[in-house]
Write a structure and sequence with these properties.
Two copies of one chain form a homodimer. Helices cover 42% and strands 17% of the residues of chain A. By secondary structure, chain A is of the alpha+beta class. Chain A has a three-stranded mixed β-sheet with strand order 4-3-5. In chain A, strands 1-2 form a two-stranded antiparallel sheet. Chain A binds a DNA duplex (30 and 30 nucleotides) through helix 4.
Chain lengths: 171, 171
DNA sequence: CACCGTAATGTTATACTATAACATTAGATC
DNA sequence: GATCTAATGTTATAGTATAACATTACGGTG
């Protein structure tokens, strides 16, 4: 059994952690998930997922495109968007609507779920929460409104613990 | 004292309601709010707000631009985006991130607040909620994570009560 | 193994969303 | 009415996303 991913209880990764493990773990899990569904986890898709997992901050489609490019190879936008579509469909990445950007799913063990994101405006690091109480409150609001809930976007912006304390120490 | 805006308890406007009253009320309140802050509620800004309030569905910037255009007058995008910027800054409209679109604020009496939106995927109608329990759950999640919350995006998509019952009768 | 059909990727063009930078006009203040 | 600032106009361009069609790679079948 693989060790759990490096992260504090608060969902934000420690400032210094073995990030290679985060990436390797995500790719492994993705591979397993795709195999189970006989979905093709192709080289391109793996590469894009790797690029996305390169950091814990959401990354834009055109940044991915740039990372994918080299002297010999210069893919066009649809290449990236199609890979993203696949990865999103299988719950391997989430789209951050308020940033037009994409981030790797941090809860691959939880089948199809709507993410709740805590995004630091200073360092960009983004934690994915899966808060029961929050989910329940959303579900209740929907019920109360006679609304049949299908999808949800919950994106919270502010300062992560690390940047908050940095700020405090500064002026 | 003006009558409250037409709406069911669930936040969605009744299928048939005196929509002219919604618009008039929004414009009046906006006028008051701007006056209080000595912000200029110019003709253009009033016109854009009126276009946005023309329906209870979010509207895109370029749709607003089209509505603003005529044979004699054909404004450029910045005209609309600047008006939107002003209206957002004063809490008169909200941006719906997941749709790149804008909707009139339905809670002008509540000073600067983050909206919670219930968006019908069938008819587009969007209700703005201000759910205490949901807000509390979000705040709690932030605290638990040591996160200093500044802004939030909560956008729920699904079927509104009316479309839900229509769907049930069909099929 | 050769064939076929489908899924994936490549390629070109274009649509949609948003802003930078500078010019002009309109309003407030004195 | 001169002057200063806020608002709007104008031109150009950046950034995000998809449509449509061509080609390639892959899995199954005879």
């Amino acid at each position: 059994m693989a060790k759990p991913p490096a992260s504090n209880q608060n969902g934000f990764p420690p400032a210094r952690h073995d990030h290679a493990r985060c990436v390797a773990r995500a790719l492994e899990q993705a591979e397993g998930i795709c195999a189970k569904r006989s979905a093709q986890f192709t080289g391109l898709r793996r590469q894009v997922l790797g690029i996305i997992w390169n950091s814990h901050s959401p990354i834009g489609a055109y940044e991915i495109l740039a990372a994918l490019s080299s002297r010999e190879r210069r893919p066009a936008p649809p290449t990236v968007y199609r890979a993203l579509e696949f990865l999103q469909a299988h719950g391997l990445v989430h789209r951050i609507e308020s940033k037009n950007a994409y981030i790797g799913c941090a809860h691959l063990e939880t089948a199809q779920h709507a993410g709740q994101f805590l995004m630091c405006r200073a360092c960009g690091q983004t934690a994915e929460a899966c808060d029961k109480d929050l989910s329940r409150a959303i579900q209740k609001l929907a019920e109360k409104s006679g609304f049949s809930l299908e999808e949800q976007t919950v994106e919270l912006s502010g300062l992560c613990p690390a940047c908050k304390s940095k700020n405090r120490h500064a002026a």
